[in-house]
Amino acid sequence: MANKHILVVEDREPLLSLLRTVLEEEQYAVSAYREGHVALREIVANPPDLVILDLRLTDMSGRDILETLRDHGDGGAIAHVPVIVATAATLEADTLSQVIARNPARYANVSVLQKPFELDDLLIRVRQALGEPEGNQAD
Predict the structure, then answer these.
(1) Closest CA to 69 of 89, 51, 93
(2) pTM (2 decimals)?
(3) What is the largest CA-CA distance in the chain?
(4) Which terminus in the chain has less CB density within 10 A, N or C?
(5) Which class for 31: exposed (0-12), middle (13-18), buried (19 or more C-beta within 10 A)?
(6) What's CA 36's distance to the chain center, in Å?
(7) 3.40.50.2300, 3.40.1740.10, 3.40.50.360, 3.30.870.10: CATH of 5-130
(8) Which candidate, 17, 69, 18, places its Cα nearest to that of 39?
(9) 95: which residues sit within 8 A by CB, 6+ positions away?
């Protein structure tokens, strides 16, 4: 699992910091952004192995970022980057889950994680998205 690059987009600094710490403890390389526009530029310039994306950002919608990634290029690396969408907005999470279910080819590697979530649940999702074995966590 070492050296997989995860890009986190979350506008709430305490959660962004926590996610960075937890993921780095798992030996992932982490880039963390509070602004969607900056994160999107970075994803396009240097596609990560995984994006963890908040839906409600201060400067743009996380949904817009997701759609931009899925629309990008001729099926290149950016269009296939796995995305974990993390949101506290129940209605938005339900709507996005329905969109994913209706178009499984487009959203094959996108999952929705409802906030608040347990960190262990997030790590399970991360490993699944990266195609890694679950492994046993020792605390």
Answers:
(1) 51
(2) 0.90
(3) 43
(4) C
(5) middle
(6) 12
(7) 3.40.50.2300
(8) 69
(9) none
